[in-house]
C-alpha cells in the first residue's frame, strides 16, 4: 500500500485545524488505498486494515487531547469514538471470518467518517477555536493593566 492519492479531503470537509485536517485526509487515503487493494478480488490485507483501525484510534486520541488541553467537556464525543472503534473492530472481525463483505465494511467506514466530520468534528472544532480565542482575549485583558501602570 505505497500509493499516495493526493487531495482526498473534500474542501467541504476541511475544518481549518491543520493537525486534524491532515489526520482526516490520511484516513481517507488509507480507506481509498484499501478499496484499490481489494478491488475485484477477495484479498483482504489484514495488517493494513489493522493499521487503519489503529490510525482511527490515534486520530480520536488527538481530538480528545485537544479537548482536554482546552478544558472542554468531551464526554459525549469520546463516547461516539469509543462506540465506533468497538463497532469497526467487530465488523472487521466479521470480515475476517467471512460473515461480512470487505467492500461493505469500507463503504460503511468511509460514510461514517464523512458524517462524523460534518456533524461532530465540525462542531467540536468551532467550540475549540472559540475557546482558544476567548483564552487569548482574556490574556490580553489581564496584561493590559501592566501597560497602563507603565504609561
Ligand atoms: Fe471525532
Automatic annotation (TrEMBL):
Pfam families linked: Hemerythrin (PF01814)
UniProt entry keywords in alphabetical sequence: Iron, Metal-binding
Classification via InterPro entries: Hemerythrin (IPR050669), Hemerythrin-like (IPR012312), Hemerythrin-like_sf (IPR035938), Hemerythrin_metal-bd (IPR012827)
SUPFAM superfamilies for this protein: Hemerythrin-like (SSF47188)
Gene Ontology molecular function: metal ion binding
UniProt domain Hemerythrin-like: residue ranges: 19-125
UniProt similarity note: Belongs to the hemerythrin family.
Protein name, per record: Hemerythrin family protein
